[in-house]
């Protein structure tokens, strides 16, 4: 179906076999996971470099599908990546964590602070839950505003991960496929 490359950008700990990102990748084997050297002790510069390498290796155009700390990786990368950012047609950023909040996030992710606040240079959709333990809904909406992104209030879905019951996630798949259709049609 898609002419665009899809890069899956997981967060802290990677997305296990029962996570919606893994389910999505199983359903669409052409989707490529961005791999990190250390999923449990994330280093901003290393994660940004891994994303840069994956984007550089992908065919144009690229759609990014990020979850949690992967969202912050995308935001940091987009604002420092140079010419490769032009390959990005769209991004879906699901459940961005508040990496500036010791109350909401573990210390392992605080190296991704401060949260970038400049507009991202590609079409972006931020989807967040009202009861995400890693970010208040107002904070997630604020990320979207700063990034110039469309915002989807997903209701009460927790962190939209395996612990919240999101292994298969048809609504998420539909959002990705809608982005791909828009890219393929030139919209």
UniProtKB/TrEMBL annotation:
UniProt GO molecular function: hydrolase activity
Keywords in alphabetical order: Hydrolase
Domain of life: Bacteria
A Pfam family recorded for this sequence: Ser_hydrolase
Keyword Hydrolase part of the UniProt annotation: yes
Protein name, entry field: Alpha/beta hydrolase
The species this protein was found in: Azospirillum aestuarii
Upper lineage: Bacteria, Pseudomonadati, Pseudomonadota, Alphaproteobacteria, Rhodospirillales
């Amino acid at each position: 179906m898609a002419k665009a490359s899809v890069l899956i950008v997981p967060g802290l700990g990677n997305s296990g076999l029962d996570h919606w990102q893994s389910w999505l990748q199983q359903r669409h084997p052409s989707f490529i996971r961005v791999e990190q050297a250390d999923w449990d002790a994330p280093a901003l510069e290393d994660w940004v470099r891994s994303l840069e390498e994956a984007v550089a290796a992908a065919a144009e155009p690229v759609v990014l599908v990020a979850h949690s700390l992967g969202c912050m990786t995308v935001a940091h990368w987009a604002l420092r990546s140079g010419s490769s950012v032009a390959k990005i047609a769209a991004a879906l950023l699901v459940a961005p964590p508040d990496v500036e909040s010791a109350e909401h996030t573990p210390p392992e992710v605080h190296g991704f602070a401060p949260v970038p606040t400049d507009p991202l240079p590609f079409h972006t959709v931020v989807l967040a839950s009202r009861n995400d333990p890693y970010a208040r809904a107002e904070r997630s909406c604020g990320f979207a505003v700063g990034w110039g992104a469309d915002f989807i209030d997903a209701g009460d879905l927790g962190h939209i991960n395996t612990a919240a019951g999101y292994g298969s996630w048809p609504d998420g798949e539909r959002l990705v496929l809608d982005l791909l259709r828009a890219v393929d049609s030139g919209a």
